[in-house]
Amino acid sequence: MRAPKFWDQPSSWQAKVLAPLGYVYAAATAWRLAKGLHLKLDIPVVCIGNINAGGTGKTPTVIAVTERLRDLFHTTHIVSRGYGGTLEGPVRVDPAIHTADQVGDEPLLLAAFAEVWVSKDRALGGKAAQDAGATVVVLDDGHQNPALHKDLSIIVVDAKHGFGNGQCLPAGPLREPITEGLARADLLLSIGTPSTQETFVNSQPHLQTPHLTAALEPLMTGMDWTDTRAFAFAGIGYPEKFFATLRKLGAEVVHTEPLDDHQKLSTNLLARFEADARAKGAQLVTTEKDAVRLPSAFRTKVITLPVRLQFEDDSALQSALKKLPLA
Questions:
Q1: pLDDT tens across 156-175, in order?
Q2: DSSP assigned state of 168
Q3: Which residue from 27, 55, 239, 264 lies 20 to 30 Å from 245 (Cα-Cα)?
């Protein structure tokens, strides 16, 4: 499902009509958090979450945090609910045997960087990671989930869209009110270009949470994108960012297919893409997250453009991670 345009508008009739439901949603989130058990593990838990629904850049942030924890000699395990997957867990993700239909696309991608556990019950997933030898758990998307005590909470937001119209679902994009969500956060990370970062800061004049900024930059793999005719498709939160990155690298993007976040990539759909791309003399290109959902027959036919998070200044993040106890 794509986010409705009125979520980004300061005032709209749709938001006004849906506002009562937004209050109910916010109240339900607050009640769930208040009633949660908050199991405290014997190892620290770093939560990468958001206040907005949908894609904000959590997965690249999980990768960046995991890499920094590795440099601090931690044995990091990632715990995810496995959105879109069928397995309840806790189960350790094995890319050799698991599919995106079983464990979700993000856990499959993250398994290239650390051990990953999929568990609908986050407490059980955290306990499994601890028992398996983890010295720290990175909890992917758990800010509104009370199952585990968090030692460090990082909120991720897309700088271009910010917190939208500031209202809760379905009147706006938020899972809970901004003030309540940030009150439980230790760091706020906004991801975007310098111009969108400036706009975001100006939209939050009373921001108290320590604020970091970063941008998603393509990972140089040796691929020369200059004048490459690309048929690009992406099922991420904001597909247009991926298409813009390709153009910035010099690719000639002859066609774009924005898909729903986590959309299933069927053989029939990809066969149509392949035929259309061939007719345009173009190469199929997608994101890392979409690539793990490709049927095996198409994995050699689609080029992947990976991106990584580049911080303007990550000293506050490094300092917070260094304070975590090392078992």
A1: 999 999 999 999 999 999 99
A2: B
A3: 264
Angstrom CA distances, 66 to 70, 79, 318, stand at: 6, 12, 12
Q: The domain 5-216+310-322 is classified under which CATH number: 3.90.550, 2.60.40, 3.40.50, 2.30.29?
A: 3.40.50
**CA-closest candidate to residue 93, choices 55, 54, 132, 58:** 132
Helix (H, G, I), strand (E, B) or coil at 196: helix
Element (H, E) at 65: helix 58-71
Confidence band for 189, pLDDT divided at 50, 70 and 90: very high
* Extents of the domains making up the chain: 5-216+310-322, 229-305
* Contact in structure between 37 and 192 (CB atoms under 8 Å): no
pTM of the predicted model over 0.90: yes
**Residue type at 147 in one-letter notation:** A
Is omega for the bond preceding 194 within 30 degrees of 0, making it cis? no
> Cβ-count burial of 187 within 10 angstroms (0-12 exposed, 13-18 middle, 19+ buried)?
middle
C-alpha 241/C-alpha 141 separation (Å) is: 21
Task: Give pLDDT, residue 36.
Answer: 79
Structure tokens at 287: 């994101």
Query: What is the mean pLDDT of the segment spanning 137-150?
Result: 95
For tokens 């994009």, name the residue: 173
For residues 139 and 48, is the Cβ–Cβ distance under 8 A? Answer: yes
